[in-house]
Amino acid sequence: MELVKWLKPYLATCGSLLKARRDEELRKQSEQEVEIARDFYLSILDNAPILIWRSEPNGQCDWFNSAWLQFTGRTLAQEIGEGWIEGIHPSDLDHCYQIYLDAVHARHPFELEYRLRHHDGNYRWIVDYGKPFHNIEGEFAGFIGYCFDITERKETARQIENLAYFDALTGLPNRAFLQGRISQALSISERDGDELALLFIDLDNFKTINDSLGHSVGDRLLCAVAKQLATCVRDMDTVSRLGGDEFVIILPETGAAGASIVAEKIFNALIIPHPVDEHELSVSASIGISLFPHDSWDFESLLKHADTAMYQAKGAGRSSYQLFTQAMKEVAHERHDMENRLRKALAKQEFVLYYQPQVEIVTGRIIGTEALIRWQNPELGMVFPTKFIPVAEDCGLITPIGRWVLEEACRQNKTWQTEGLPPISIAVNLSPTQFIYRQQHIVDMIADVLNITGMEPQYLEVELTESAVMHDPDGAAQILRQLNAMQVKLAIDDFGTGYSSLSYLKRFPITKLKIDRSFVRDLITDPEDRAIVSAIISMGHSLKLKINAEGMETSEQLEFLRREGCDEAQGYYFSEPLPAGELAKFLRRNSQGYVAIIQSP
Ligand code: C2E
Ligand code: MG
Ligand code: MG
Known about the structure:
The chain is of the alpha/beta class. The protein has 3 domains: about 40-155, Beta-Lactamase (2-Layer Sandwich), CATH 3.30.450; about 165-325, Alpha-Beta Plaits (2-Layer Sandwich); about 345-590, EAL domain (TIM Barrel), CATH 3.20.20. The chain is about 50% helix and about 20% strand. It contains 22 helices and 22 strands. It has an 8-stranded mixed β-barrel, surrounded by 4 helices. A 5-stranded antiparallel β-sheet has the order 2-1-5-4-3, with helices on both faces. β7 and β8 (about 245-250) form a beta hairpin. α15 packs parallel to α17 (about 475-485). The radius of gyration is 42 Å and the shape is elongated.
């Protein structure tokens, strides 16, 4: 008992000593645990695959994780303080500063999107979530920021927006964008009492380029055209693509005169050849123009009117523009109707060939005939080629129609030969559209038709216009050489109306020039036409070409042509174009292929 009493204070001291020691151990242990925990969490933050930073209460950054440093390619020493700000895109800096300083001041969380420079030199979009953090005492200790790379997401969003408002191929605004832009432009024009012009541009023969050279060439050509159109306008104008080969340009503060100048500029820009693969493609366009407030007050009808005017321009020939007029509406309707009927005409066998004799002037012998297409439509009656061939060229129907003409003409000529009529050659017109972009196809097609019909190639004469061969002289020469090697004869039709020179034509293996009807018509009354015809005959002869005078109607013309040494003639004087049966009769009637020619006095 005594001992216990004696020991009590001692034991008490020991107890408190032991307690103190245990407390100390516990403290150390907990400090260690805190340190372990801190290292643990720090290593998580440091190794996290997202970008993390920490700032002091005053906003100065004092730590960045490894992902951040790897992203920027900079060291911790370079980034801390305000170093990291150098990586922010200059355009995003002001916005970042404002949000960040506000958050530091108010100590509240923030969310920021900005572009941060990647170590590869490009900027990437980052979303940065900043959260305030507190120390053990619960005091505000700064911010921790967690950043995610959202570049892909941004890009997708941009693409979606682009899809909605921009044309994926050329990057130009699309119809939806245009609609918004023009209603804005129209209200401004209305307010200011200004005019506004809308240009509807359609490329000529684009479908043929696409079909013959392939869609990727077509696509690249469209991109080149888009770029060139942009060079023809002011900053305030809008160039857009409606789709296909159709473009629309809006010209605020512009009337008829200004719009016409832009149209001319476009023609000049497009004619410069665009290199696409091994091709040098120059395009022409047809342009329709409508004006606010003259033609209409709203977008849809301005667009429709410009489209109508564009169709008129197409009919008037390549590279031309037209200002809309109310009278055009009716014509546009007719053309549309014709295109629809034309689509069915081949299947319904509504086409027929007429044949016009070609006569050798010296002998009066019928040496050939030209096949000329007619369209017999139950409602429209007999339609002449000058009316429907341009429509067929525009909508691509010229390819099947051209093939039909060639096959029908060769078959008919072979039939006449089999029937015992004196063999004559048959001339077939090739449309420039058929020839220019489908050159190899033309050679194959002709070989195929000759094979199918069994007509010998030397009886076939292909008629091409000057513009068809001059469009791509090298390409044309190559194809014409192939046709020549097959023994097919080649004639230049409507000679004198194009821009080729005789010396240039030397390069092509052609056999005949057909003097255009317009020169023959006024031979007797117009000394200039007489001089031109004489010159063509003598220069043509010096190049060893046969000369045919088209549209010869009178004996006076015949007399002049004979004196000048013209080889052959074709025209109403001998005969109008005749149906096949009539031509056979004509051949028989004219004593086995000779027509009576009035002898010179
Ligand atoms: P082209 O090839 O120059 O054909 C001659 C045109 O002149 C024909 O008109 C013919 O009927 C006309 N003609 C002939 N002699 C006379 C005359 O003495 N006086 C007058 N006033 N005219 C005469 P058509 O048949 O109306 O053909 C017009 C054009 O249509 C042709 O001009 C040709 O460029 C084109 N064409 C005709 N058939 C075809 C075809 O099958 N394919 C293609 N691509 N074009 C064709
Ligand atoms: Mg012809
Ligand atoms: Mg002709």
